[in-house]
Amino acid sequence: MLGSVLGVGAGAVAGAAAYQAMAPWAQGFGRTFVSGARGSKHIALTYDDGPNDPHTLRLMEVLARHDVRATFFLIGRYVRQRPDIVRDLVKAGHVVGNHTFTHPHLIVSPAVETRNQLEACQRAVEEVTGDAPRLFRPPFGGRRPATLRIVRSLAMEPVMWNVTSWDWKMPPAEKIVQTCARQMRGGDVILMHDGSHIAMGADRSQTVIATDRLIERYQGDGYQFSTIPPMMGMGAVRPQVSAVGRGP
User: What integer is the mean pLDDT of 58-74?
Assistant: First the structure.
């Protein structure tokens, strides 16, 4: 009987730890930015796993057509491959952040490896743009207390999200739009992907189309699109438990 009780207790502890490590809105392992002020007329489009040829470039065309700026969390090894795309992002007024050098799962990475991953990405971006990123998003959303301590020791702020597009599964564009719309509450940070951590050249054409439709829909409703830095000053971040998942 005692063994059963202890087993249940251990399982509950493990489950709670996994939740704090992976849920985008969880704050138990340390403060992260999740969203802006709930109900505000601001939305932040964020894209992970780039730069990616050709879809980051096509996405930039859509954003430019709507005069919208977004936040891109870059993988360092791709920055090395396509520094020209990174320079174009910054020149266009987009914000670039750190998404590690090779996209490992940081909840199982030793602290030394985590620091090496973050520092390598910082160097790659700084060599191309002249500035080290000030924002960080963990691959797969996974983090531990040590992860967040290392992030802040490198003068970065951890950024999560409150709307998951599930676009990495490559559904049709309209499905991506519908998935986002079900979660939108105002002050939203949307997780999307312009690339893939598996290889350069991933097909993100449906994300590009979905971005165009999301902007048209919400600009028509009076929303403004923002990068993460100004949104971080729009109000306190409050964990929002909703039907969103984690992504790569």
Answer: 98
Q: Write the CATH number for 215.
A: 3.20.20.370
pLDDT classification of 3: cutoffs 50, 70, 90: low
Tokens for 196? 């893939």
Angle, CA 55 vertex, CA 49 and CA 58 arms, to 5°: 135
Tell me the two tokens of residue 13. 């502890």
Q: Are 68 and 45 in contact (CB under 8 A)?
A: yes
- pLDDT at site 239: 34
Give the residue numbers spanning the domain of 84: 2-231
Q: Residue 14: CB partners within 8 Å, gap ≥ 6?
A: none
Number of domains in the chain: 1
Specify the pTM: 0.89
Tokens of 102: 């090779």
Contact at 8 Å (CB) between 146 and 29? no
Q: What's the Cα-to-Cα distance from 29 to each of 96, 172, 191, 236, rounded to whole Å?
A: 25, 35, 21, 18
| Parallel/antiparallel/unpaired status of strands 71-74 and 135-136 | unpaired
pLDDT tens column, 102-151: 999 999 999 999 999 999 999 999 999 999 999 999 999 999 999 999 99
Q: Is residue 128 part of a domain?
A: yes
The pLDDT assigned to 242 comes to 34
From the number of C-beta atoms within 10 Å of its C-beta (0-12, 13-18, 19+), residue 39 rates as exposed
What distance in Å separates the CA atoms of residue 65 and residue 230, rounded to the nearest whole number? 21
**Rg (Cα) of the chain, in Å, rounded?**
18
Active site residues: 48, 193
